[in-house]
Design goal:
Blueprint (H helix, E strand, L loop, with lengths): L4 E5 L2 H12 L3 H8 L5 E2 L2 E2 L2 E2 L3 E2 L3 H9 L6 E5 H6 L1 H12 L9 H10 L2 H11 L18 H4 L2 H17 L4
Parallel strand pairs: 1-6
Antiparallel strand pairs: 2-5, 3-4
């Protein structure tokens, strides 16, 4: 069904913060979701349910994509996209060029990185709205969404215990 994929992974501590805002739930509820090995989402469009998806825990989800070796893949850390968007956009484009014809130049890369900065997207949401099914603003805190300042310490400790090997592999700890 697919010839390649791009998987974007994010530090699970910041995932908890984003989920809490997105769904209007507590950090503890978000923790329970991302540590649930049997977590399933039941999406719908309007009133129509679409097929359920097993998401599993953050660690299982990451590992399942990482260990999928039957098709070409690229794994990008969300934090790397934020830190150096241009470099990572080029990495993604070079990966996609192996499968499809893509024409780009440095100016397009620079423009893409500039126009997708958090501040620009937040401004568009403020002016025109943005509905991805969230309870609160989608473009909420940006770089200020930092687990070091916002995540309950007990949750941080439990996340590290639960996902230590994956977090070490990704250099989150």
């Amino acid at each position: 069904n697919t010839s390649a994929f791009i998987y974007v992974v994010r530090d699970p501590r910041n995932v908890i913060l984003s989920m809490s805002n997105h769904f209007g739930i507590t950090q503890e509820e978000s923790f329970k979701i991302i540590t649930n090995e049997k977590h399933i989402i039941y999406p719908q469009i309007g009133n129509e349910l679409i097929p359920a998806t097993l998401v599993s825990s953050w660690g299982n989800n990451y590992s399942s994509w990482k260990n999928c070796n039957s098709i070409p893949k690229i794994i990008i850390k969300y934090e790397d996209l934020i830190h150096d968007a241009e470099k990572n956009f080029k990495k993604i484009i070079n990966f996609l060029k192996q499968k499809i014809k893509i024409e780009y130049d440095e100016e397009k890369i620079i423009n893409s990185a500039r126009t997708t900065q958090f501040e620009n997207l937040k401004k568009i949401e403020d002016e025109h709205g943005f509905n991805a099914g969230q309870k609160n603003k989608f473009f909420y805190l940006g770089k200020k969404n930092d687990w070091r300042n916002l995540l309950a310490k007990g949750i941080n400790d439990r996340i590290i215990i639960k996902f230590e090997s994956e977090m070490k592999e990704l250099e989150y700890i």
